[in-house]
Design a protein that fits this description.
There is one protein chain. The chain is α+β, with helices and mostly antiparallel strands. It has two domains: 152 residues, Jelly Rolls (Sandwich); 79 residues, Orthogonal Bundle (Arc Repressor Mutant, subunit A), CATH 1.10.10.10. β4 and β5 form a beta hairpin. The chain is globular and about 55 Å long. The N terminus is likely disordered.
Length: 236
């Protein structure tokens, strides 16, 4: 969701969405300390926050906006591993393992992040059991998402099924329990093809077909799923 659609909070204690986010849902002194060690910053669309192989200097919590996380082979081929949105924690694995960042993180739309330096974050983690629990849950969720993405690419037999699964996953995430399945499509058709394991031309053709079949509707960058049941049937 674009930054402008939600209020900006300088303090995590003021954020009304904190309770919906796995890592940020801290209490008492832990939340106060998190505010003290974190620094908020806003970035325009298509800004690289850090690159694969770069020395890790800390974690980034996504307050609003959307980023793509990608990796590049020696031959120069790039794969988008997943999208990160509000509540996600970037650089957590690299920080805990004392390793370089495993991926490149680039904003897809105006994005607001809260950064915490590596040393301060590790001390914060050591001093607060609640933070450790939330970090463990966050890593577990990220592992599950990577597993599901690998499963999607390996087991979904058709390009339409792979693309349909992506659209449904993103819409359900953006809905936050609401009935309307609508989200901002910040990826280009080339990037969508990268994630769906197909070609740009196929993605363009499939999106047009989904729209003709009244499975989705598009208005600008906003995509709404009209018939999730029929779209889900393509995934099987």
């Amino acid at each position: 969701m674009p930054v402008g659609s939600r209020p900006l909070y300088e303090s995590c204690q003021e954020c009304e969405y904190r309770g919906l986010r796995l890592f940020c849902n801290l209490s008492g002194e832990a939340l106060k300390r998190f505010d003290e060690i974190g620094v908020h910053a806003s970035f325009p669309s298509r800004t690289v926050i850090y690159t694969e192989g770069q020395a890790c200097n800390g974690v980034f919590v996504v307050c609003s906006g959307q980023l793509k996380l990608s990796t590049t082979s020696r031959e120069g081929r790039t794969m988008i591993l997943r999208l990160a949105g509000a509540g996600d924690v970037l650089g957590l694995s690299a920080t805990l393992n004392q390793q370089p960042y495993e991926v490149t993180a680039e904003t897809l739309e105006p994005t607001r992040l809260k950064s915490v330096r590596r040393g301060e974050f590790l001390q914060f983690l050591e001093n607060n059991a609640e933070v450790g629990q939330n970090a463990a849950k966050t890593l577990a969720r990220q592992y599950r998402e990577v597993f599901l993405d690998a499963r999607r690419l390996a087991l979904s037999g058709s390009a339409g099924g792979r693309l349909g699964r992506l659209l449904l996953e993103w819409a359900n995430t953006a809905a936050c329990g609401k009935n309307e399945l609508r989200f901002t499509m910040a990826l280009t058709h080339e990037e969508l093809a990268n994630m769906a394991g197909t070609s740009r031309e196929t993605v363009t053709r499939l999106l047009n077909q989904f729209e003709r079949d009244h499975l989705i509707t598009r208005r600008g960058a906003t995509l709404t799923i009209l018939d999730p049941t029929s779209l889900s049937s393509l995934v099987q």
